From TrEMBL:
PANTHER family: HEMIN IMPORT ATP-BINDING PROTEIN HMUV. One of its GO terms (molecular function) is ATP hydrolysis activity. Keywords: ATP-binding, Nucleotide-binding, Translocase, Transport. InterPro entries: AAA+_ATPase (IPR003593), ABC_transporter-like_ATP-bd (IPR003439), ABC_transporter-like_CS (IPR017871), P-loop_NTPase (IPR027417). NCBIfam families: PRK13548.1. Residues 10-249 form the ABC transporter domain. The lineage of its organism: Bacteria, Pseudomonadati, Pseudomonadota, Gammaproteobacteria, Aeromonadales. It comes from Aeromonas lusitana. This is Heme ABC transporter ATP-binding protein.
Amino acid sequence: MPGSSSSPLLGCQDVSLSRGGRLILDRLSLSLLAGTLTALLGPNGAGKSSLLKCLTGELDYDGEINLFGHPRQGWASTDLAHRLGVLPQSSSLNFPFLCEEVVAMGRLPHSEPGSRRDEIVKAAMTHAGVEHLAGRLYPGLSGGERQRVQFARVLAQIWQAPDEPQGPRLLLLDEPTSALDLKYQHQLLTMARALAGRNTAVLVVLHDLNLAARYADRLVMLEQGRLMADGSPAEVLTPELIARLYDYPAQVLHHPDTGLPMVV
């Protein structure tokens, strides 16, 4: 079920979610186009991770979600896995798999020769900067190393060779930098930014406003399950909005070289 390259790859219309009698998402509408990296921001409890879980089918919701121009519930799981990659906050995988075996799990939805799978796994690990971990046991890794291996798994799952036609893809990243040191935060978001340039829409949950300002085209700010702001970093990162949502008296400066806002 291919979608048109000019239509949204993700469309949410009046999405609501209640759990335990509490309203988590309140008639939220959002659309994402290919070629964009959107940062999803907001204080704890704003509904960011819950929205991603609705998009992935983990949570039932009211309203409408379309992926690649078709209702989410109409997609076969294998077909959707070819073009939708999801990196959760953390992984509960504790079996003694080698890291290269974990990354190879990303190719399970695909039918291909083993040699092709191995080629993609190696390339994905190289792009994620974890090729040196290929022979290590996954449970013995640090939290940051695990997150980077899981990112390589997601890359392997939606991998398209540079010389192949670039089909539309959607990448959902839930707090992908939380366990990473500064170097690898920038490495991961640089890779996500590059993927967005290849017919892909990227939606990433972030807490670091400065990382969001540096890498995202668009910031979407949630408060108590509602859309409170949507626009460029310069439009969204205002002292007034930051003080309101984060209860933090922020000062917003502008980088002398890039002109991007910086929250201090």
